Amino acid sequence: MxxxxxxxxxxxxxxxxxxxxxxxxxxxxxxxxxxVQILVDDNVLKDIGGxxxxxxxxxxxxxxxxxxxxxxVDSAWEFSGEDLKQNLEFIDPQSDCDTYVVAALRLAxxxxxxxx
Length: 116
What we know:
Layout: E1 21-26, E2 33-41, E3 44-51, H1 55-68, H2 73-78, H3 81-85, H4 97-114
Antiparallel strand pairs: 1-2, 2-3
Helix pairs in contact: 1-4
């Protein structure tokens, strides 16, 4: 019987009830969607939420939320996959889901700026 891994920021990963913009980015590795929602107020990321379907993506999104929530939009744009990897509890060398989580955030930021 296999056990599902859990990480300290897993509880941060949940959909937001209200948000300013959202994006879904498909992982080419596990073929599962990574959904990110952002709530922006006065150019600051007041809240970030989302939905993922695998434990590694959940760890990545939870860690991203813990690091990016409260940043201004310009600073969030500068957040990189390397910034994320440096803060993960576990890095899966065979998966690029950490990169896709950051891509989903950037897509949500773009949607916010374009008003879609």
